[in-house]
Amino acid sequence: MVFRLKLILFLVLHFLPKVKSSMVSLNNNGYEDIVIAINPSVPENETLIQSIKEMVTEASTYLFHATERRVYFRNVSILIPVTWESKSEYLMPKQESYDQADVIVADPYLKYGDDPYTLQYGQCGEKGQYIHFTPNFLLTDNMSIYGPRGKVFVHEWAHLRWGVFDEYNVDRPFYISRKNTIEATRCSTHITGMNVVFNECKGGSCITRQCRRDSKTGLYEAKCTFIPNKSQTARDSIMFMQNLNSVTEFCTAKTHNTEAPNLQNKMCNHKSTWDVIKESDDFQNASPMTGTNLPPHPIFSLLKSKHRVVCLVLDKSGSMNTVRQFLLTFKYLIEI
Ligand SMILES: *[C@@H]1O[C@H](CO)[C@@H](O)[C@H](O)[C@H]1NC(C)=O
Ligand SMILES: *[C@@H]1O[C@H](CO)[C@@H](O)[C@H](O)[C@H]1NC(C)=O
Ligand SMILES: *[C@@H]1O[C@H](CO)[C@@H](O)[C@H](O)[C@H]1NC(C)=O
Ligand SMILES: *[C@@H]1O[C@H](CO)[C@@H](O)[C@H](O)[C@H]1NC(C)=O
């Protein structure tokens, strides 16, 4: 009996998908075997696959420059849901599954709407669980809000892979600096902009006015927003606002804003994102690529599993024969 129980346990543990472990590895500057999985409840639309490919291809170039020629995306598997039509070009997945995907495409999780996010509940420098993009984010352009999707991907990848945090803070958009000025929570402080309150908006243009100081808090009034100038010279940071054209780098020890009340400073003891990234395992093994050539574009594999049913047959009679039968049945079901 004990033997049988152990056997069944072994089978179950062995054949069920493993709990959250990414297959991504970094070899010779290239990330390999990233899994991007589409949720089975997402309606079929091939444009999604195209959009994922474009996003990752664009991201690879941004990542390469932002990491000073250290890393790029070499190959990626896109897991197509069983609910979509099959195609001869689709391959069978091996270990890839939705549950252990690095990136999921799924309907919005209420709290975030269409905003991409990365689930990372670890400490500074620890890896996250997954990145979530919604179909709407991938299918409709919202350039002024997010910037190019490739840049968004790099922002999320930095959360997922290197455990760095946001440098904005919607709950504390302003703070009082050591010089006793009101500053927008940002990195770097070279990002210029104006602090305004929107009064009336009609047909895409708004009447704004300057923010007033609240005598109680010493900060600006609650409705005040920092609007960065469209035209900037600051290159950092990707973890603040990747949507700004000039922004292509992470804040470094030199440019990092240690005063801003943001999650990066809180979680990483006021260290810059670039310093945290440089200390990651990835960067211990990746020296910058020599020469001036760009790395190759990422290669995509499209994977789709066939519908399959796995059921466990439990038998109460004591003979070894049933154990054997059970084994064979189980093996057969797995291999369909
Ligand atoms: C990615 O590239 C590596 C090295 O060339 C290879 O071993 C691996 O099978 C590739 N994976 C995919 C999904 O193409
Ligand atoms: C796929 O998405 C695009 C962009 O939203 C839309 O124009 C197109 O009609 C969709 N196709 C299908 C088959 O739903
Ligand atoms: C763009 O983003 C805004 C704000 O998040 C949202 O209200 C709007 O629906 C988005 N537009 C599209 C086309 O996704
Ligand atoms: C940029 O921001 C500064 C405030 O930091 C403002 O004085 C200036 O007028 C802005 N420039 C443009 C072109 O909006």
UniProtKB/TrEMBL annotation:
This is Calcium-activated chloride channel N-terminal domain-containing protein. One of its GO terms (molecular function) is intracellularly calcium-gated chloride channel activity. Keywords: Signal. Pfam families: CLCA. Residues 1-21 form the signal peptide. It comes from Ictidomys tridecemlineatus (Thirteen-lined ground squirrel). Residues 24-290 form the Calcium-activated chloride channel N-terminal domain. InterPro entries: CLCA_N, CLCR. GO terms for cellular component: plasma membrane.
